[in-house]
Structure formats: C-alpha cells, structure tokens
Amino acid sequence: MTDFRIERDNLINISEPIRTGEKLQASHRFLQIANRHAEMIPLLDEFIAEIKTLSGCAAIGMRILDRKGNIPFVAYTGFSRRFYEKESPLSIRNGDTACIRVICNRIDPVLPFYTPGGSFFVNGTSRFPEATAAAGRKEPCSVCRSYGYESVALIPIRLGDQILGLIHVADPGDDRVPQEMVQILEDGAMQLGAAIKRVRAEEELRKSNEALEERVKIRTAELAAINRELVRQMAEREQVESALRKSENELRLLSGRLLSAEEKERKRIARELHDGIGQALSAIKFGVENALRSLQREPASTEVDSLKQIVPFTQKTIEEVRRIVKDLRPSILDDLGILATINWFCREFKSLYAPIGLDHTINAEEDDVPEHLKTVIYRILQEALNNVAKHSRAGRVSIGLEKKDALLVFGISDDGIGFDPEQVVSLERSERGVGLASMRERTELTGGHFFISSGRQTGTTIRIVWSLALGAQRVST
Predict the structure, then answer these.
(1) Residue 198 and residue 334 in one domain
(2) Of 205, 235, 259, which one is at a domain's C-terminal end?
(3) How far, in Å, CA of 14 to CA of 392, rounded?
(4) Reported pTM
(5) CATH number of the domain bearing residue 385
(6) In terms of residue numbers, what domain contains 355?
(7) Which terminus of the chain has fewer CB atoms gathered within 10 Å of its CB, N or C?
(8) Taken in order 398, 370, 475, 452, is the CA torsion positive or negative?
(9) Residue 118: C-alpha distances to residues 44, 132, 275, 335 (Å)
(10) In the predicted model, what is the mean pLDDT of residues 319-333?
(11) What is the pLDDT of residues 391-419, one digit of tens each?
C-alpha cells in the first residue's frame, strides 16, 4: 500500500505541470462545446472527442444515470463491442465496481486512487490488485484490467451535489491519466453536468412543445372536422329551409291557381246555367204561361201543340243538367266504381276526340283500389286526357291500371310532340299551368310517387305508384 502512495506522489512530482493557461484553454473549449449543443448525443460525442484529443487515451465513454438506477454507456469511442456489451448494463442497485462507487459517491478515503473531487484513477492496473488486497479491499477495476487497460480514470459528471453520470477514460498504456489530467477532466465534467441539465430541460421543453403542438394539431383537426360538420349542417339546413320556402311558395301559387281555376269553373258553370238551362227554363215558363192564358180565356179549348213544343225544351234542359253534373262528378263513380268510370270516360273521350286512338288496360279488381284513391285516379285521368287533347298532338294514347303485388300502378302515355320537363320546371311559376302540379300534388298528398318522362317528339309518359301495404294517406279532394 505504501509503495502505491509513494508511486502516486512521485507521479505527481515528476509529471510535467500543466500550465494555468493550458487549463484555462481546456476549460474554455469545454465551455464552448457545452454551449454549442441542444441535443444530448452530439454534446457527449464532442466532449468525448475533446477528451480524447486532450488526454491522448485510446478509449473514452460517457455513462449517464437514468431514473431506474442504470448507468449504460450513452456514448463511447475506442471500447470494443464485447467490452461495451459486458459493461453497459451496470446498475447502481447491484455490484461494487469503481464505476458504481464513483456514481454513488462512495469513495474510499483509505485508498489512494480517489481525488477530493470524487474521481477514481489508476495508472498500472496490473499492479492494482496487490494494493487493494494490501488495504483489505475488493478490487473495483477488474474488468478494465482484464481487457488490458493499464490506465483508467472515472470522473463524476456533477451538477452541484448531484451526480448525473461519469466519464470513463481508459488506455492500454501506463501513466496516461495523471492527476493533473483528472483535475482538468473534473472541471470539464462540471461544465458537462450543467450542459446536460440544460439539454435535458430543452429536450423536455421541446417534447412538451411537440406534445402541445400535437395536441393543438389534433384539436385543430377536431375543430376543423366540427367546423366542416357545422358548415355541412348549416348548408343542409339552408337547403331544407330553401326547399321549404320553395315548397311554401309553390303551394301558395298552386293554391292561388287552384282558386283561380275554381273561380273560372264557377263562372263557366254559371254561364252554362244562365245561357243553357236558364234560357230553356225561360222558354218552358213562357210556353206554360201561354197555355194557361189560353185555358183561362177558353176553358174548353186545349193548346196541345203549345204543350208539345215545351217537351223538347224540357228534355234538352234535363240533358244539359246531366252533362254539367258529369263534369263536376260523375255519378257512375259512386254508383259503379272506378273501373266502370274509366271505361265510361274513355268512351266519352273517343266520341269527342275521334282522331285520337285510345286503348286502356285494367288488370285490377274494384276492391284492389282503396276508396280514397278512386277520386284521385279519376281527376288525374281527367286532367291527363285533357292535356293530351289540348297540347300533345298525339295520334294514340294508352291508359293502364294494374295491381302488382302490394303496388297499385296507374299510367298514361301518348305518342305526341312531348316537351322538355326541365324547361317546364325552369319556367317562372306564374307561366306554368296547374295540370302537372295538380296531378303531382294529388299523388303526393295520397302517399304516392309521381313520375313523368317526356322529350321533344318522343311523347309523354306519366306513371304513378301507390303502396297498398303501407296504406295511403287519406285526403279530401
């Protein structure tokens, strides 16, 4: 033991003193490196390179203590892969090597291999076991010796009283880590400790900022998605409101046109009653009055011829009344049903519009047609054939009514000049007739679906479908 102390003292005495200026230069270079980096690995790598240049040693490593008590090599140069794999898994929770003693600040004041700054160094590991045995201590540097490293130094990386890790210097040559070099490395290790604290703080801040940016990014994406959904809902609501306004306007215009059509129909009926039935009844009244006056003057005489003339007027008046009633609502619809009414109306149409060929096909029974749909079908048939006669210039028209499973299908098609449905839709509402709108309105109010297809010179087809399974909405027509 005494020999090692004498050897250490001799090493200190005979070593060439490092001038104060050189120490300051080394300290300045360490400070520059410490201030140059914002990331851990580049910081440690440049410190290692500087220590290697300064000390001339073959192997330099940096162990950093983690929260679990492990002290792996975070950066190193010169050590073999086998040495790294054997030494890197060290932990302060087990073992009693020099590395663990330095990190845990468990220096042995009896041994001459520790500095006041808490560093361990030895020059000549092959002689080290004898010295430790003489002091009654377990050898703490056996691994480095077994790999042929004669000179070894372990310098704690300090931050005040806290030890963050250590600098591991090793070289196969003897006397490569004198005490003066260890002192310089201790100064550098303190600067490294401050730099590690700063880098860790910056890394934590960067991670925090990245996490915050990620949360902001996610939240921004969520808000953007919510905003898009709100925009979509607003657009959808706007479309619904626009459709409602359009529907209300169309309904208002349709109601106005229906009222106007109703008023025209009343005027027509009033004119027919006045011009036809009114005049006929006046003629009958006049003839009856003449006959009565003649009977009053000559009770025994009879005005047979005058009374005979009244009969045709009376018959004509009866027929006119029947015609008007049929136009308003044919009694056959109530008496015999929709199938008989369709047959009758088709005959009437043929007699009035002989040039237009008409055929109709009925594949349904009377009971297949719900009561509230019978009037709707009749009115649509009436309106559709009226449009054919007035506008289509058709040579033939076909009518069909059939029951398909749970569906009731009613259709009218012609081979006329047709029209462009889109153009009709694009017309100002005030320019449209009430025919198509009335047919569609009657269909939809009774739960049906109204389809129309037409084109220039391709004719027109109207198809209406009601679901009998679901039932149709009852409305008064």
Answers:
(1) no
(2) 205
(3) 126
(4) 0.48
(5) 3.30.565.10
(6) 330-477
(7) C
(8) negative
(9) 21, 18, 131, 120
(10) 70
(11) 888 899 999 999 988 899 999 999 988 88
